[in-house]
Design a protein that fits this description.
alpha+beta; four-stranded antiparallel β-sheet; globular; about 25% helix
């Protein structure tokens, strides 16, 4: 009997349940709430594992699609892509309410960012901002759609970690 228990515990790593990206993002959301309570290191660690140079977050109750374009300090287009985001309340594991775009920053300086939506949020379907990146290896851009904590329906934030997005 003991031998059988030992064999069953030696299953291959492929049998280990791994969370879906959606579950991981939900855990990140929980970590964000923990940030408010003062445990920002955990939230920042989790976010650092999934966030990239440019991140678009859908905080609305509707699906959002559109495009994002960034030009670098030399005027070259470094990102020109589209996205299709689930609502922040979606329970569908196949869709995400966050789009991430890696390897965008070419150098320190000012980048022009434009986001266009297929449908408006509170009367706004486009936003443009100039964001300054001082440390391309560490900083990231968050573009947040429909966050109640922001003054505009489409907001831009630069920071080195998740908690720095909340402090602006």
């Amino acid at each position: 009997m003991k031998r059988e228990v030992e064999i069953s515990m030696m299953q291959s790593p492929s049998n280990i349940a791994r969370p879906s990206r959606r579950q991981f993002l939900a855990a990140s959301g929980t970590a964000v709430l923990t940030t408010i309570a003062g445990c920002s290191r955990l939230a920042n660690f989790i976010a650092d594992q999934i966030l990239e140079d440019v991140n678009v977050f859908n905080e609305t109750a509707q699906q959002r699609s559109g495009s994002i374009k960034l030009t670098d300090p030399a005027g070259e287009t470094v990102l020109d892509d589209s996205f299709d985001l689930s609502s922040s309340e979606s329970e569908d594991d196949d869709n995400d309410s966050t789009a991430v775009f890696p390897d965008v920053w070419t150098e320190a300086g000012s980048y022009d960012a434009t986001l266009e939506l297929d449908a408006d949020i509170d009367g706004q379907s486009e936003a443009t901002d100039t964001v300054t990146i001082t440390d391309p290896d560490e900083e990231m851009l968050a573009v947040v759609l429909g966050a109640e904590s922001m003054d505009e329906p489409i907001g831009f934030r630069v920071g080195e970690d998740l908690s720095s997005f909340q402090n602006e």
